[in-house]
């Protein structure tokens, strides 16, 4: 067993948005950081969201005004710092005669517009669905709607870019690293991890990492980790809420989103997805199974199809589904009420039994507030280790986001001028994923053949090589469903070709490192 004699300031378990956000913030302040993720970065909750940076309009109904305000303020901050992976969206909320009254919806949207200090996004307006393109896809009895602003996000890339920046700032990020055991010895955590293990935790290399602070950012697995920590036994700290989505062929020919009310008090979204598809979700159901094996249920499929069909003229049935995904939201277990009413805010708990070390547990949270959560965690870290540099992420771009908040189209145009072999669709995808890093990936390419091996659907060797070298990609799924959203257009043969190339590339790199 290998024992690393270095002592880290912070050891983070979990490579979702909270773990990677904390790693970036802490490394940028000068702390020595180690992060272990048992699978791929963003492979859990963080890649299974509805892909929004938003305040949460429905939370106003539960009087969560402070939470909504905090989220809306962050919406502006995150968009400014990540204009490649975050973009403005307009949402159409049809008025349903039998549900919430119009005055109530108008009041909620007025509050939503102004409670968070909206600056750049356009305000709410009332639209006549009989004369607006957004009414074409809906049943004719929907004649009025409210249109408001929020932001979309590539959720997995938000996590990955935080991890990339953390590495740039000196953090040690490790994927496929399973924590088996932890113990405190002389005010120092000794964390036993298995590197490069198989999913059943066999194989790999076992080593011990030492750290002053241990942060449990494992989301749905938080109680499982707590039960591996010596002298700590916790159960039922979190309530697991299953959120499932379906993806179908594009249902309409405009770029706006829909938010639909249902008679059970829930809402679902219909959102343009990857140009050719529409994503519908989410559900809110309590989950009591193994967090590693969550799958969308038939009841959830029926619920999403029937709710969407109540609004769309074209009925949606299970056979229309091209892809479906389901993840768990770890909600702090503070009530037994309806799942959709449970708090989405985060709860932080510090266990400081010894003077020089502590355990910090994270319960809940959401994409939109991850940066504020990270800052709150660093306040706790400073109380143990002492302060270093101050808070810094509010005005710091994520990698590739160093261009004006409304400069996306200009960057796409500039990319096409520099690389004339790019189609507009190809350039748009690359800029949406990488921002200004597109120039690092394409480098000195003068024609399409300089991009190397072609896999399919505008995925070439240069991009794959970049993702392996700089973004922790170790398999086809990592690239197709988290680094990009190209998986829906890949055949089994395409996937096998990509998988074989990645394996050869990694094995070759490993062989060179051993020389």
Structure in a nutshell:
The chain has helices spanning 17-28, 65-81, 102-114, 155-168, 222-226, 298-309, 370-385, 408-418, 424-434, 438-442, 461-470, 476-483, 492-514; strands spanning 2-13, 33-37, 52-53, 86-94, 125-128, 144-153, 172-175, 177-185, 188-195, 205-216, 238-249, 257-261, 267-273, 277-281, 285-286, 321-332, 347-354, 357-363, 454-456, 459-460. Helix 1 (17-28) runs parallel beside helix 4, helix 1 packs across helix 7 and helix 8 crosses helix 9.
Explain how this protein is built.
The chain has 515 residues and is α+β, with helices and mostly antiparallel strands. It contains 13 helices and 20 strands. The chain has helices spanning 17-28, 65-81, 102-114, 155-168, 222-226, 298-309, 370-385, 408-418, 424-434, 438-442, 461-470, 476-483, 492-514, and strands at 2-13, 33-37, 52-53, 86-94, 125-128, 144-153, 172-175, 177-185, 188-195, 205-216, 238-249, 257-261, 267-273, 277-281, 285-286, 321-332, 347-354, 357-363, 454-456, 459-460. The strands form three sheets. Strands 3, 4, 5, 6, 11, 12, 13, 14, 15 and 16 form a ten-stranded mixed β-sheet that branches. Strands 1, 2, 7, 8, 9, 10, 17 and 18 form an eight-stranded mixed β-sheet that branches. Strands 19-20 form a two-stranded antiparallel ribbon. Helix 1 (17-28) packs across helix 7 (370-385). The longest helix has 23 residues, at 492-514. The two termini are 22 Å apart. The mean pLDDT is 92.
């Amino acid at each position: 067993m290998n024992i690393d004699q270095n002592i880290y300031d912070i050891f983070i378990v979990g490579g979702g948005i909270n773990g990677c956000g904390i790693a970036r913030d802490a490394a940028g302040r000068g702390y020595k950081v180690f992060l272990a993720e048992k699978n791929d970065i963003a492979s859990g909750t963080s890649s299974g969201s509805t892909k929004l940076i938003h305040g949460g309009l429905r939370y106003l109904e539960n009087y969560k005004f402070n939470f909504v305000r905090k989220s809306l303020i962050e919406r502006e901050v995150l968009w400014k710092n990540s204009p490649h992976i975050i973009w403005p969206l307009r949402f159409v909320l049809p008025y349903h005669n039998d549900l919430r009254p119009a005055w109530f919806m108008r009041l909620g949207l007025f509050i939503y517009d102004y409670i968070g200090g909206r600056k750049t996004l356009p305000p709410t307006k009332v639209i006549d669905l009989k004369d607006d393109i957004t009414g074409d896809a809906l049943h004719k009895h929907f004649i009025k709607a409210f249109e408001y602003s929020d932001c979309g996000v590539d959720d997995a890339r938000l996590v990955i870019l935080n991890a990339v920046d953390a590495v740039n700032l000196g953090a040690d990020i490790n994927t496929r690293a399973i924590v088996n055991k932890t113990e405190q010895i002389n005010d120092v955590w000794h964390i036993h991890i298995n590197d490069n293990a198989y999913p059943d935790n066999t194989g790999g290399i076992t080593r011990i990492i030492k750290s002053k602070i241990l942060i449990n950012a494992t989301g749905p697995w938080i109680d499982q980790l707590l039960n591996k920590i010596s002298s700590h036994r916790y159960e039922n700290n979190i309530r697991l809420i299953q959120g499932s989505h379906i993806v179908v062929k594009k249902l309409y020919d405009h770029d706006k989103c829909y938010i639909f009310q249902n008679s059970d008090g829930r809402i679902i979204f219909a959102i343009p997805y990857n140009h050719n598809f529409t994503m519908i979700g989410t559900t809110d159901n309590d989950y009591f199974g193994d967090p590693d094996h969550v799958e969308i249920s038939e009841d959830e499929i029926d619920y999403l199809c029937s709710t969407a069909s109540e609004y769309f003229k074209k009925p949606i049935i299970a056979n229309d589904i091209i892809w479906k995904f389901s993840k768990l939201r770890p909600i702090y277990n503070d009530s037994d009420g309806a799942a959709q009413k449970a708090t989405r805010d985060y709860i932080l708990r510090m266990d400081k039994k010894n003077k020089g070390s502590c355990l910090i547990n994270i319960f809940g949270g959401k994409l939109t507030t991850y940066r504020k959560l990270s800052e709150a965690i660093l306040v706790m870290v400073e109380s143990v280790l002492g302060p270093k540099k101050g808070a810094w992420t509010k005005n710091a771009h994520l990698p590739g986001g160093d261009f004006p908040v409304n400069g996306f189209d200009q960057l796409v145009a500039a990319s096409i001028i520099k690389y004339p072999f790019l189609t507009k669709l190809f350039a748009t995808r690359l800029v949406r994923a990488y921002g200004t890093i597109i120039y690092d990936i394409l480098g000195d390419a003068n024609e399409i053949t300089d991009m190397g091996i072609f896999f399919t659907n505008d995925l070439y060797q240069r991009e794959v090589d970049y993702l392996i070298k700089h973004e922790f990609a170790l398999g086809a799924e990592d690239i197709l469903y988290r680094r990009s959203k190209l998986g829906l257009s890949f055949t089994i043969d395409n996937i096998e070709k990509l998988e074989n190339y990645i394996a050869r590339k990694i094995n070759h790199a490993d062989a060179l490192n051993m020389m």
